[in-house]
Sequence to fold (121 residues):
Amino acid sequence: MILSKFLAVVADIPARYLDSITRGFCVALLLGLAVKSVLLSHWALSAILVVLAGIILVNIIALHLEREAFIPLWMLVTVLTATVILTTCYVGLSGATWMFPTLVGLRFAAPPRNTNPRGWC
Fold:
């Protein structure tokens, strides 16, 4: 019952706003992890997390202005790769598992595509 009411409320929210909320949640998650990294004196990891959150935030703003993403996807992937490497170096392999939600969130960081779902022309 509660779930159906929740889904009814979410269904009324336009997709553009849901997308922005998801991207904003990714930014908040990354900034929270950056603060934690500062407290643990993981300076390089903290810096790269802030850069990653900044890239996603800039791209959110670009989408709201209905422009193409200011930061290219290749740069985002490069920073994300550096984040995974630094996380593994500082925290170990078990600490890098938190990156899975970020990798899923990467789908939302890229600009929306207007392609056929089956990939046909």
About this structure: The first helix runs from residue 2 to 11.
